[in-house]
Amino acid sequence: xxxxxKQKDRLVCNICSYYCKLKENQTGICGVNKNIGEKIExxxxxxxxxxxxxxxEKKPPYHFLPSSKSLSLGTVGCNFRCSFCQNWQISQxxxxxxxxxxxPKDIVNIAIQKECExxxxxxxxxxxxxxxxxxxxxxxxxxxxxxVFVSNGFExxxxxxxxxxxxxxxxxxxxxxxxxxxxxxxxxxxNIVCDNLIRLKKNDIHTEITTLIVPTxxxxxxxxxxxxxxxxxxxGVDTPWHISAFHPDYKExxxxxxxxxxxxxxFDIAKSYGLNYVYRGNSNFRNETFCKxxxxxxxxxxxxNVLENSLKNGCCPKCDTKxxxxxx
Length: 328
Description:
Elements: E1 4-7, E2 10-13, E3 21-22, E4 33-35, E5 40-42, E6 50-55, E7 69-74, H1 88-91, H2 104-113, E8 118-121, H3 130-141, E9 146-151, H4 157-162, E10 169-173, H5 179-186, H6 190-202, E11 206-213, H7 221-235, E12 241-245, H8 260-272, E13 278-281, E14 286-290, E15 297-302, E16 305-309
Parallel strand pairs: 7-8, 8-9, 9-10, 10-11, 11-12, 12-13
Antiparallel strand pairs: 1-2, 2-3, 4-5, 6-7, 14-15, 15-16
């Protein structure tokens, strides 16, 4: 894809849906994509701020290669400004440590050596370093290693189209269902995020959704119901929804941690609308995947650990119903 287009004396960045129109030497909202004259350069290409090996459940797709290891990486910068960001030390800075350069080949070699079945682009918003992520993902494909985005869902239309054959799975943070709150407190645009979720599903990218339940911000029954209705009507009842507990961080230190009662309320709303796969994260709830047909427990999890997995070729061993997801 073309990462920029020319418009008079500016270059338009095509990486995210802000479509920043940049004069020469100007950097976009993300702080890391810069008009250097003839092109827009991704300043964080190769310069990572975090690199870890995680269980895939920590990302947190539950229906994508369960029990496998994922090599997780991030850079600095973000195109959102969430006041509760739990990785704000890297997402809300554009201070690049150029002592940590890893080529795409370096990353893939580490994944191979550590026997990771996927590479996850996470910690900060991976869309802003898509040129780097894509080069890694394309090379990783040659070795049978899949790629996972953990994203705010504010990619450009061009990037989502380019995902096909490059990115295998995505977990999108659907942070709220309040348009004003999105624009004023988070960044981006709720309608664009929703449209992108629909595009991802149409493009057959394995998609899961996470909503961080932040007390007093997005935890009303009315708003949670709107999120659930959107998922059901536009993405389907088989789309996994992760409802995750907030803990005080960054600029939101005076808000209490999400209660189990609040998580349970969101869970109950989702089940009342018929969502088949609903999970309560950052909590002591056991998260189980049930067969949507016969109710058999198929996968049992505790925090990031899979305690039991009885799937056979992605199907229920009892009634042979196929489960949404990508399984070994």
